[in-house]
Amino acid sequence: MARSAQESLPASVVSAMERGGSGMDFSEIDLQGVVAKLQIQSRDSLAQRLPGTSPYRADRTGPSGATQSQFSGNTGSSASPAQHSRPLDISSVRLDFPALHQSIHGFPLVWFDNAATTQKPRQVIEAMSSFYALDYSNIHRAAHTLAARATDHYEGARETVREFIHAQSKDDIVFVRGTTEGINFIAHTIKGFLREGDEILLSEVEHHANIVPWQMIAREVRARIRVIPIDDSGEILIEEYRRLLGPRTRLVSLSHASNTLGTVLPIEEMTQMAHHHGARVVIDAAQSIAHMPVDVQAIGCDFLVFSGHKIFAPTGIGVVYVHPQLHDVLPPWQGGGNMIRRVSFDETIYSDAPAKFEAGTPSIGDAVGLGAALQYLRQFDPISVEAHEHALLEHATRELKGIRGVTIYGHATKKIGVVSFTLDGYTTEMVGKELDRRGIAVRTGHHCAQPSLRHFGLESTVRPSFAIYNTHEEVERLIEAIVHLSRRR
Ligand code: PMP
Questions:
Q1: CA of 304 relative to ligand 1 center, distance in Å
Q2: Are 370 and 387 members of one domain?
């Protein structure tokens, strides 16, 4: 069991650190966490003393062959890290994430719940705390200095998002609270264009956030929802999709990647097919955004949505990309301040996009956090990130397959780092509890995508999911725990 710093360090050292204002809570942080924090502090002070040596300001170019536009086009301030400038050294990445350096029930935490949400790097935490400490104000509506600074931060974050998903203009980027709110926003703005008998196509692997809002709208306008089926490996049946598309198809809304089966859908091809029939396409990128390049122009979609908290940013912030051709066509979905040009009791003239779609005071501090998270991730070559997570997926899949009583669901050729499985003789909750006892956090349950599990006659699976900071040693710890349970049956 890890001992606390208070127990492990000489009292004189602890009191010197307290006097020095190290800002650490000794009752909560274990020794490993303290060491990690000290390493970070010393690295930062070194970087300050030697300008140009900080890993976050490096101006080396990334590895050749990394052409993904997701991380490209740095037009940011001098404080922005250069794209792909940092080699993917997992132990150094882990030092950026304070939450990873704590013990749970006496074991170092293994965070394998990344499909639900991701931990935050100190760069995000510090960007937000500095914003709240020094630059905080409401945006747009005042002549004073802090309002200008806060507006710059907020609009800077919008530009960072634009670069990250390779949108043409930052006006295509609308801030919302998350994927769920984003899809509800799209459903409500598009409702007026749907007629009785129109068809909305969804895939069988969709998250409830990409089912329920469409059902609500469909009921209202008497449209029909049709489902694109998957095969038993979790792959979309593309010929069935072709068959479903027709003159009545108005809208196709698809996950880029499934949060239960890990399947990566061929969204570029599916978007083209939908457009051929004149349908609009919505992409739910909640599960892909942190794990693979996402390029809205290459996909060709009309809308794309994601949540900040799944890409190392805070909760309370998300993005809807709206194709420029739709800016003027779509009505606003909420009315209020910030989204108007002129108001009288007779009539209101709305602002242009994106303000038109952002009524009220937005989540400014969370947008700052999102900008910092994307700046953080763009330091790394996305090909290396994808390859690392894929290696973890292959490792876990190979080992789990060999354990008696384990069944894995979802064997698509292209998968994100998500493994859904069951273990004979145990409920998924029992497996989750045993893993938690060993400090390993995984999600168990239906993962808010019940139809995709019902395809396999299931209501629940155990779902470890991987991110940039996970290691092969952590996968081994998961395997060890499942082997232990399997032998005890
Ligand atoms: N879509 C997918 C594919 C998801 O995985 C999730 C979150 N699990 C959502 C939508 C909903 O995201 P949020 O709860 O952040 O709105």
A1: 13
A2: no
Q: What is the pLDDT of residues 16-54, one digit of tens each?
A: 444 444 444 433 344 444 434 444 443 344 333 333 222
Nearest CA to ligand 1 atom 4: 286
Name the helix (H) or strand (E) containing 107. Answer: strand 107-108
Gap from CA of 209 to ligand 1 centroid (Å): 6
Same domain, 244 and 190: yes
**Domain shared by 405 and 352, yes or no:** no
| DSSP symbol at 227 | E
- The pLDDT-based confidence of 56 (bands split at 50, 70, 90) is very low
Could you tell me if residue 102 is inside a domain? no
User: Does any domain span residue 347?
Assistant: yes
**Same domain, residue pair 158 and 289:** yes
271 within some domain: yes
Ligand 1: distance of its center to the CA of 178 in Å?
Answer: 8
Would you name the residues annotated as active-site residues? 448
Token pair recorded at residue 161: 């998002």
Q: Rounded CA gap, 289 and 257, in Å?
A: 9
Are 254 and 334 within one domain? yes
Do the strands 340-343 and 348-350 form a parallel or antiparallel pair, or are they unpaired?
antiparallel
Q: Return the residue matching tokens 């396409």.
A: 281
Q: What mean pLDDT do residues 401-415 have?
A: 98
C-alpha span between 248 and 57 (Å, rounded):
52
Q: Which domain holds residue 161?
A: 145-378
Residue 5 scores a pLDDT above 70: no
The per-residue pLDDT for 400 is: 98
Atom index in ligand 1 nearest the CA of residue 206 equals 3
How many domains does the chain divide into? 2
**Rounded to 5 degrees, what are φ and ψ at 3?**
-95, 150
CATH number for the domain including 399? 3.90.1150.10
Question: Is 132 within a domain?
Answer: no
The confidence band for 344, taking pLDDT boundaries of 50, 70 and 90, is very high
Ligand 1: residues within 6 Å at CB?
178-180, 207, 209-210, 255, 259, 284, 286-287, 307, 448
The DSSP code sequence of 38-106 is HHHHHHHHHHHHSTT--TTS------TT---GGG----S-TTSPPTT-S---HHHHHHT-GGGG-EETT
Q: Which of 181, 259, 418 to mutate to test the pocket of ligand 1 (most atoms within 8 A of CB)?
A: 259
Protein residue closest via CA to atom 8 of ligand 1: 116
Residue closest via CA to ligand 1's atom 14 equals 180
Would you say 262 and 420 are in contact if contact means Cβ atoms under 8 Å apart? yes
In angstroms, rounded to a whole number, what is the distance separating the alpha carbons of residues 372 and 127?
Answer: 7
